[in-house]
Amino acid sequence: MGALIEWSGWRDSNPRPHAPEACALARLRHTPTRGSLGASTRPGGQREIPPIPEKPDRCTRAHSPFHRGPVLGNTKPMKRSPSRPVYVIPNLLTSAALFSGLCSLIMASHGEYIRACYLILLAAVLDGLDGPVARWTRTSSSFGLQFDSLADVVSFGVAPAFLMYTKLHAIDEAISLPNWAPRMAIGVSTLYAITGAIRLARFNVQVEDEEKTHFTGLPIPAAAGTVISTFLVIEVYQLPDRASLHRAIMVLMVVLSYLMVSTIPFPSLKGIHRRTRRSFRMLVTVVFAIWLMIMFHQHIPAFAFLGFLGYLIYSLTTAIRTKRRLASFSPGEILTPVPLDGKDEDQK
Hints:
- The chain is built from 11 helices and 4 strands, in the order H-H-E-E-H-H-H-H-H-E-H-H-E-H-H.
- It is mainly alpha-helical and about 350 residues long.
- The strands form 2 sheets. Strands 1-2 form a two-stranded antiparallel ribbon.
- The model is unreliable at about 1-10, about 30-40, about 60-75, about 80-85 and about 340-348 (pLDDT under 50).
């Protein structure tokens, strides 16, 4: 009995070491000394019972890379992080959108305005794909966010502004206009490009706090799409008095510049989940729109114009309706809480 008490006290004062030290001590304790069978005697004459050694094969198996379960301590093998080459896919889409914007600048400088407009629309399609692809493949990163914003500045900020300036400059050369007309074209074009860059910079700063169901301010791809689709409708359908209509686009660009830096909420497709009825309706709408564009491809400018104009009207009417609904509540109105048991306090 005393030996057992002594054994338990010795174990409390000598805690069990970690897995690597336990393996070494287990091998040493398993080897008997000369003249004894593994037992020793203390100076007082009391016999010491040796601890039960651990099996060497368990220690070896615990630290083997082929062993999956822990035996001694935290011996779980480290998992290798899988390589993720799909990071390239969303960045390739962003690079393609940037390439389309740069080609649009080149086409506009050579007077190919319609081709330049189609290239900007292609950049808008590619820009709309890189975000969902990054979210679906779980490859979203801070690098991709910054790269996408820089590409948007060129494709949807600089390219439409340069396109409108070159077109108005060509009109001014063909028709004698006052001296303030070229200055106005330069001022409106630079205003549009600067406000678009400010819109993207604010998005990058507020990307963590921004709600997923809406954007704060008009997205710059929607602003560029509105300008380009209006330009295409005027040029493709050969509307009368095109010079005056092109100058009216400058007024539209001023309005869009204000909407980009405003705090008006605009709907976003990020809040639509894949397994909801709303997402199914959106999928049917997109498929129907693609089918219409394929069947009536000669009217793509009209479809684009109606789509961007409808987005603007829907967003503004929704924002006005929401503001009126919030204004209908008085500031001092207090909502009385309903008890959990469904009974009022006066009835108790």
